[in-house]
From TrEMBL:
Official protein name in the record: Putative enzyme
Molecular function terms from GO: ATP binding; ATP hydrolysis activity; ATPase-coupled transmembrane transporter activity
Record keywords, A-Z: ATP-binding, Cell membrane, Hydrolase, Membrane, Nucleotide-binding, Translocase, Transport
Xref: CDD domains: ABC_cobalt_CbiO_domain1 (cd03225)
PROSITE patterns found in the cross-reference section: ABC_TRANSPORTER_2
InterPro entries: AAA+_ATPase (IPR003593), ABC_transporter-like_ATP-bd (IPR003439), ABC_transpr_CbiO/EcfA_su (IPR015856), ECF_ABC_transporter_ATP-bd (IPR050095), P-loop_NTPase (IPR027417)
Keyword check for Cell membrane: yes
Similarity comment: family membership: Belongs to the ABC transporter superfamily.
Record's subcellular location: Cell membrane
GO CC annotation terms, alphabetical: ATP-binding cassette (ABC) transporter complex
EC assignment: 3.6.3.-
Cited SMART domains: AAA
Residue stretches making up the ABC transporter domain: 18-245
Length: 254
């Protein structure tokens, strides 16, 4: 069955982009970082991932994209198993700290890096770099030194490095951390308009409310709740039991 999405693209209803089957991971024997995580993320969904410090959000992202090898369970992206350690252009991760993503002498080189590693022809790489920088609104930074950019500029360039690989699934780890109001607003508009299947880990619950149609709450590596952001985040008991607060905009709605 086909339907029109919000972006007027034809998509297959209920096509699954991310499948996690009974996923578990621990950094050490004493404590599990992820326990029995089962999830299906539908193509085109924008999913928020919330939870207190240390809940396992970054760990879950690293397991989904194959940077970490799960202790048990498996991950499928677009119905194909993820092989830990192997580059998979279908999925991209925007790191919490843009400095972990930017290491080349120029913005152009950084944004080209992933696309070049996919073995694309030089003219295709150039085209992708220009398209990615234009989508994030930072084409004017193409010749700059990444290291010298502001926090907001680095954030959008880091996102561009992932967009240039044109993954269908993108994981954003704390994308609004350290952004000023204007840069945060630009990021929110960008995320709202994005057409990929996305997961966004964030402590910025208002951002999740504005961007996401589903939210997943983690506590000590377990999924505690999964559903509509307004519903989950307005549940005061649930939020407080998980060391979170009901976002301001929901406390003032009647
Ligand atoms: N490299 C590591 N070695 C050992 N333990 C780790 C490592 N990275 C994370 N952990 C532990 O795993 C747990 C989950 O951490 P993780 O960074 O995934 O949480 P998070 O939800 O992303 O937290 P935050 O909101 O603070 O970014 C924490 O207890 C953390 O101390």
């Amino acid at each position: 069955m086909k339907e029109l999405t919000r972006n007027n693209q034809v998509s297959l209803t209920n096509t699954v982009s991310i499948t996690l089957n009974n996923l578990g991971f621990n950094y050490s024997k004493e404590r599990a970082a992820l326990t029995d995580v089962n999830l299906k993320i539908i193509t085109g969904e924008k999913v928020g991932l919330i939870g207190a410090n240390g809940a396992g959000k970054t760990t879950l992202f690293m397991a989904i994209c194959g940077i970490l090898t799960p202790n048990y369970g498996d991950v499928q992206i677009l119905n194909r198993p993820i092989v830990p350690g192997r580059f998979n252009p279908d999925i991209g991760l925007v790191f919490q700290n843009p400095d972990d993503q930017l290491f080349c002498p120029t913005v152009r080189d950084d944004v080209a890096f992933g696309a070049e590693n996919m073995g694309l022809a030089p003219h295709e790489v150039t085209e992708r770099v220009e398209t990615a920088l234009s989508l994030t609104g930072v084409s004017h930074l193409i010749d700059r030194i990444p290291h010298h950019l502001s926090g907001g500029e680095k954030c959008m360039v880091a996102i561009s490095t992932v967009l240039a690989m044109q993954p269908q699934v993108i994981l954003y780890d704390e994308p609004s951390a350290n952004l000023d109001l204007k840069a945060r607003r630009r990021l929110i508009r960008f995320l709202q308009a994005s057409s990929e299947t996305i997961m966004i880990s964030s402590h910025d619950l208002e951002l999740i409310l504005e961007v996401c149609d589903r939210v997943i709450l983690l506590n000590q590596g377990r999924v505690i709740a999964d559903g509509l952001p307004q519903k989950i985040m307005s549940d005061r008991v649930l939020m407080e039991n998980n060391n979170l607060e009901v976002p301001h905009s929901l406390t003032h709605k009647h």
